[in-house]
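Narrative of activities, Objective 1.

The group set out to show that a structural description can be obtained from nothing but a protein's sequence at a throughput compatible with the screening campaign. Below is one input-output pair from the validation batch, recorded exactly as produced.
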Amino acid sequence: MSESNKLSIREKLGYALGDGAANIAWRGVATFLFIFYTDVFGLSPVTVGVLMLVARFSDGISDVLMGVIGDRTKSKYGKFRPWILWTAVPLGVILSLLFTSPELGDSGKIVYAYITYIFFTLIYTANNIPYGALMAVMTGDDKERTSLGSYRMVGAFGGGMLVQGALLFLVAYFGNVNPEIAIDQLEEEKFKVTVSAPSDVASVNIKTENGIADFVWESPEMKAKDSEPTHAKSFEMEAEKEYTFIVTGESNIVEDSISLIDQKRGYSNSMYIMAFFLSLFMFITFYTTKERIQPPKSQKNNLKRDLKDLVTNKPWLVLLVIGLLFNVYNSIKQGIVIIYFTHYLNNQLLAASFLVALMLASVAGAMATAPLGKRFGKRNLFIGALLFSGGVNSLFFFLGPTDVEAVFAIGVISEFASAIFPTLFFVMLGDAADYSEFKNGRRATGLIYSAGSFATKFGGGIAGAIIGFVLGAFAYDGQNASSIEGAIPGIIMLMSWIPAVITVIAAAFMLIYPLNQKKIDEVTTELNNRRLQESHI
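Output recorded for this entry:
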């Protein structure tokens, strides 16, 4: 390996922080936005599913445009690095707005959700396509790029761990309303609970810490509006006014057993903190990385030729489909976790521990990818990881709400294998860019990497639609206990065999991927020779 292709640990870590930032945004949205929209903002699951799907229809065009713009960007910082700098603050701002819930009517809420969500996807595109393309121009060595990919995924999963592990606890902290709570025991599992707060709260949510007990309003005027027993109640509190419930289904309820949280304030303040770290990490990535690989000196801008090269690039076409499918798989798993823990295991905060465990498994999977890729080849490893992860994940179907240890074990094992997908995917996009240059004598790295952003976003949109339509088919309503109980079979399906089926389809497509290790070595050697000759001209 030439010294020009060698990357320092500092540069690899700096690059990794960029995906840590991106995953604060993306995993935060994939994991929490659906339940925020349905249980806090008050949108129906079908409305959310349609929103997430509709917002994706522009992605194909915007992603390709961003790839073209990136390839044609000229600055003293390079083609792709400046976009990381320019979008660092806007991405943090739009993430904050996604989890802000202004007081609007039903139609106003839908309009607000569409505007903020679509702007989020556009700004994410402007950030993430150049970020992904940067990997391919930091080094021309495919093995060094695989190592960089492992660092990148560790950063990605680290960012995911930060948002998924800390957010629910931050929501509880920032959403604290300093309530006064009085409890009178009426029977063994029946209590009268009275709460009040020192100041007005626009929207507060009350439940037990375990999330098992049912709440029924005792006050006649409140009962007239909401008479259904539910695991939680959302309502508006006036300062110093008392609100009384009859709580049943749990024993030994004391003051510390009652959770009273302003979820709107909790989510907003928590995401403001996450957005700050997102922007900070992006600045670090910009200042610690360097672009080294340039298009051939003889190459002239020709969009028609670039697009023709793209659609005839078989490795890229296969990766586009594969990326779409594995992102549907991962996004369904992420999007249903909080609902699964909240309404099936009846312990929402336990989801935070579960997500941290998955992130640790993901880090291990990402670090194992480089040595496993050298031993089995990227394509074979990808196929094996797909089938293994999906097969293990399907075992969730057989678990009950008390099988917590098995839930953690299955989740961790499946996640270890699924962490290999994105690690290999973005490395293989670099291989596809090399293959295009090898075959056509031209390089359009940004355009190639538009597949990564498109697959991530459109896959997430399809996953959101699948979750919404399945839960809608079971009449899920996050604020109604009877509808939640009726939707449990759908929640289990989404947690188990529905995503597993997708891995089988993806593995079948991966069989036609044409770049084995022998071909990649041939491409790398030839391109290095061409660049060496060009540097001497």
